[in-house]
Amino acid sequence: MKKLIGPISQVLTLDKLFLKGALKDEQLEIIEEAGILINGDKILDVKPWKKLLKTVPEAEKIELGGKLVAIPGFVDCHTHICFGGLRAKDFALRNAGKTYLEIAESGGGIWDTVSKTRKLTQRELAQITANHANRHLSDGVTTIEVKSGYGLSVEEELKMLRAIQQANSMTHADLIPTCLAAHLKPRDFLGSSSDYLKLIVENLFPVLKEEKLSNRIDAFVEKSAFSPEEIDPYFKKAKDLGFDLTVHADQFSVGGSKVAVAFGALSADHLEVSGEKEISLLSKSNTIAVALPGASLGLGVGFTPGRKILDQGGSLAIASDWNPGSAPMGDLLAQASILATFEKLSTAEVLAGITYRAAAALGLKDRGKLVQGQLADFILFPTSDYREILYHQGRLKPAEVWKSGSKEVW
Ligand code: NIG
Ligand code: FE
């Protein structure tokens, strides 16, 4: 059934924008007084409202009132929204001068969340994940990557990934699961890091395939987590088995971005401490750089060098990293707006970074632009000037969110 939605003051299709490199706002395709024509869950056309009224009179009309700007639904390509408990204590300690690593060593950090997550049932975790996803959806985030990584044993990682799968049927947002068993060597594992990774390869990877729990493998390449040498055989095996790869890279020390590029990972995420060498390597590759401004804001560290990556021809996505430790805010639009101010990113670059470039970081080609054949995932913001979306720094909330051709009701 065809539906014609409009009139809309401005529709930003993001058509004809490239995957890589800097973008200027003049390159944005803006269709004024437009209608969006959809067929089922897909976009059929975006054209001036009056034209569409004449050419498809048979379509069901959904008439909107007032000023509205439409843009593609946001894609958050890096989150950890499946977790138990909070870490407000860590946040207070960091603000009082302790470092992320000091807190981790004294009982806080990732391991604290692992202990709290292990105490929950799959059903409880699914409910928490769906609640987080629904909050994100009401902010316009229609596709959400969700990592495991707070289980850190074969059984507990499986519990998390099954919970994410279950949560996917409890929200209209699309959840894209990623296995982050290589987040940290678990404290209760007696062997070496390499022994732990071997255990995951042998006992978890086959179940991921059997139960179709995830087609993506992530690793935290960091001095305090796994070294490039330890990750090398792990990623080789994952790649041989056909998994897509992504890396927590260059967050506190460099090394991860090189691993990401060498393995042809879809994305290298964080990059707060990437230097000229790393920026150049990434920018020449097809690996998408993912900035996580929420982690910079949560930890009080510098932002990912997005401007330099774009100017050297790289592709930049922006994600929330929503997690209970380093990035508790979970507001993608506010964070992307703030990153724009500090890194001097154009509106086109920011919007690309939270739509089609983020979709590409997940290997998804069917969303992120409002053009024929793409999923009918879009947001209507209550304004007639698209620049206000970033200008209000996250305070301008969607008037409507459409996911796969249906309007969300809340
Ligand atoms: O992306 N860097 C490692 N992992 C997460 C933090 C997880 C946590 O602190 O619980 C991140 O920032
Ligand atoms: Fe993360």
Automatic annotation (TrEMBL):
<keyword id="KW-0369">Histidine metabolism</keyword>
<dbReference type="GO" id="GO:0046872">
    <property type="term" value="F:metal ion binding"/>
</dbReference>
<keyword id="KW-0862">Zinc</keyword>
<dbReference type="InterPro" id="IPR032466">
    <property type="entry name" value="Metal_Hydrolase"/>
</dbReference>
<feature type="domain" description="Amidohydrolase-related">
    <location>
        <begin position="70"/>
        <end position="383"/>
    </location>
</feature>
<dbReference type="InterPro" id="IPR005920">
    <property type="entry name" value="HutI"/>
</dbReference>
<dbReference type="GO" id="GO:0005737">
    <property type="term" value="C:cytoplasm"/>
</dbReference>
<comment type="pathway">
    <text>Amino-acid degradation.</text>
</comment>
<dbReference type="InterPro" id="IPR006680">
    <property type="entry name" value="Amidohydro-rel"/>
</dbReference>
<dbReference type="GO" id="GO:0050480">
    <property type="term" value="F:imidazolonepropionase activity"/>
</dbReference>
<dbReference type="GO" id="GO:0019556">
    <property type="term" value="P:L-histidine catabolic process to glutamate and formamide"/>
</dbReference>
<dbReference type="Pfam" id="PF01979">
    <property type="entry name" value="Amidohydro_1"/>
</dbReference>
<keyword id="KW-0378">Hydrolase</keyword>
<protein>
    <recommendedName>
        <fullName>Imidazolonepropionase</fullName>
        <ecNumber>3.5.2.7</ecNumber>
    </recommendedName>
</protein>
<keyword id="KW-0479">Metal-binding</keyword>
<dbReference type="InterPro" id="IPR011059">
    <property type="entry name" value="Metal-dep_hydrolase_composite"/>
</dbReference>
<keyword id="KW-0408">Iron</keyword>
